[in-house]
Design goal:
By secondary structure, the protein is of the alpha+beta class. It has helices at 12-34, 43-109, 114-120, 124-195, 199-212, 230-240, 259-269, 278-281; strands spanning 286-288, 299-302, 308-314, 317-320, 329-332, 340-345. The protein contains eight helices and six strands.
């Protein structure tokens, strides 16, 4: 006869664990059901984030420009030093050759005591002339040795200077690569945000840019007020000729520009060499803190760190290369996105 065993009852601990797990699963399901779906940022929110990224990219661009300018300056200085070292080495070799020839001549003639040479000489007068020449040669040798030592010191100093500048160049190149990567990262992030917009939203943003980038034909009243100088008028005219050219970070024309690239190029056309970066340009002339005193062609600076610059166009407007995704255009000083700091009259 088969035996019947009573089923084993689950332990109280096991029941508690299972009950707790079931309750947690129900709670998670309820939370998932009640959670609101992640909201897609609006066009205005995207534009605000993109504008901020573009501003940060422009800040990095000016640092990039400064590193690039420093790199070019160091390369020129190193090249000059290396040329000087090469010429100095040739001079040193010539001095050593001269010393070598003199030493060889003395070796061939030998070093006989002067009294014995006089006694053996068939022509004492001739010997005295030769002795005088030998004394003169000795003085020349001393002078040549001094020149050799001086030239060696000069070469050692120039080689040391070149070595230090090469180290500086290496760190500058590292900084340049870092800033380039930073700019590219900001621009890529901005583009990713723009790509998230719908076709209609992209079209609306493009329309806003078109309105901001009105042609010079619609701004014929600009630039007619008195320019700061003949050079300022020439620089402003040069900038006007570049309206519509795209903004590209690090560019100085004539296919594209960044902000300080445009202003430095424009003044170069007027025969005035101003620094490459906006920060350096801010110290190249007389500062004007009142907007009412600005004249056409004055440099105008924005943001606390002076990372943006343009040319004053009159009537509260400037001509500038704003940022990535835009072109050289006129724009009201009140819509730049950062405070007006001061102008500079070159």
């Amino acid at each position: 006869m088969a035996s019947h065993r009573r089923p084993k009852q689950p332990s109280r601990t096991r029941v508690t664990v299972l009950t707790t797990a079931a309750a947690a699963a129900v709670a998670l399901s309820a939370n998932a059901a009640n959670a609101a779906p992640s909201e897609k940022p609006s066009k205005d929110e995207v534009k605000s984030k993109v504008d901020k990224l573009y501003e940060e990219a422009e800040q990095a661009t000016e640092k990039f420009n400064g590193a690039k300018e420093k790199q070019e300056k160091l390369q020129k200085e190193i090249s000059t030093i290396q040329d000087n070292v090469a010429r100095g080495q040739e001079e040193l070799n010539d001095l050593r050759d001269s010393m070598g020839l003199a030493a060889a001549a003395q070796y061939r003639t030998g070093s006989i005591d002067s009294s014995l040479q006089l006694f053996l000489s068939s022509n004492p007068d001739d010997y005295l002339d030769k002795a005088s020449t030998a004394d003169q040669l000795s003085a020349q040798q001393v002078d040549a040795l001094k020149k050799i030592q001086e030239k060696q010191r000069e070469l050692a100093q120039e080689r040391s200077e070149a070595s230090e500048k090469l180290k500086d160049l290496s760190s500058t190149r590292t900084e340049l690569a870092k800033k380039k990567k930073e700019v590219q990262g900001k621009l890529a992030e901005a583009q990713k945000l723009l790509n998230s917009l719908t076709s209609a939203e992209k079209a609306a943003l493009a329309a806003e840019q078109d309105r901001a980038s009105r042609s010079s034909a619609e701004r014929v009243e600009l630039g007619k007020s008195t320019p700061a100088s003949g050079r300022a008028a020439a620089a402003f005219s040069a900038a006007q000729s570049q309206l519509g050219k795209p903004y590209v970070y690090g560019a100085t024309g004539t296919a594209s520009y960044d902000c300080s690239g445009l202003t430095s190029w424009a003044y170069a056309q007027a025969g005035v060499g101003i620094p490459r970066t906006s920060e350096a340009q801010a110290n190249y002339g007389t500062r004007i803190y009142s907007q009412s005193q600005l004249q056409v062609g004055d440099l105008v600076f924005f943001f606390n760190d002076l990372h943006h610059v343009g040319l004053y166009a009159g009537n509260g407007q400037i001509i500038h290369a704003p940022r990535s995704g835009t072109v050289v255009r006129y724009e009201s000083m009140g819509t730049i996105g950062g405070p007006f700091m001061f102008g500079v009259r070159v």
